[in-house]
User: Fold this.
Amino acid sequence: MNSLPEVSRRGFLQFGAAAAAFSTGGGLVAPAGAEEPGAGGTDTWRGLKVGIATYTFSKLSLDVTIQDVRRVGVKYVSIKESHLPLKSTAEERKAVVQKFRDAGITPLSCGVVSMSDSETEIRNAFEYARDAAIPTIVCKPTRQSLSLLDKLVQEFDIRLAIHNHGPEDKVWPSPLDVWDAIQPFDKRIGLCIDVGHTARCGVDPAESIRKCGSRLYDLHLKDISKKEGKSLPVEVGRGVLDVRKVLETLIAIKYPYHVGLEYEKDMTDPLPGVAESIGYVHGVLATLPG
Assistant:
């Protein structure tokens, strides 16, 4: 299990105290000083765009999701189809994204979008992201479609982040499988590293981030109960992943894209676990040198 240094623990407890306000209708907000770069204060997120993959809230409505993202004090999301259907009009896509923006939340990606070899289906995914002004599609394509994807990333100027899904996935189990496959193609075809699935493949998440950093366009941050077999999701900081090393590596490579918490436990009531996880991340960042 991750050890929690004292400074990190204090940061965590700030979030925990605020979380207690849930039962009385209060809201969780970022601790004092958690300003964005250039906002006139210290960037306690250390330059990282920490946010939420809204798959976390996929059993909840769009309005509740926006409210809960605000309550945990982050400003970025990756939008899941449950909150913005692929089968939607351009106007509907723009309207959903505007709701996030009006709440002070910036959508940095969408997905995970599963892709077949159908050009019609794949093109719809690109049009979906274009209409919503989302710069990155987190996706699970086939290997056979990479040549078509190469053409479409150039046509639309939208990045792809291929998501690895662990040892059960026969196409993209590890980020290293993605990395090797995309080398001949346009650099806008990249990766979304899922740190939990990566560890379950026997690959060090931090080392994969360092190796693939030049084409790493999204990241799913989480924690897991064990690295072997079918692991259970847990609150970040309660599991076996070296979250500190992951965050240190992201800072070291000056990672500019989304660091999205994907919390897959208690999905009918994820907010307490999300608050604890974001609080832990914020606390660890407070202990890092520099």
Remarks:
- The chain is about 40% helix and 15% strand.
- Strands lie at 49-53, 76-79, 106-114, 136-140, 159-163, 189-194, 216-221, 223-224, 233-234, 258-261.
- Residues 271-287 form the longest helix (17 residues).
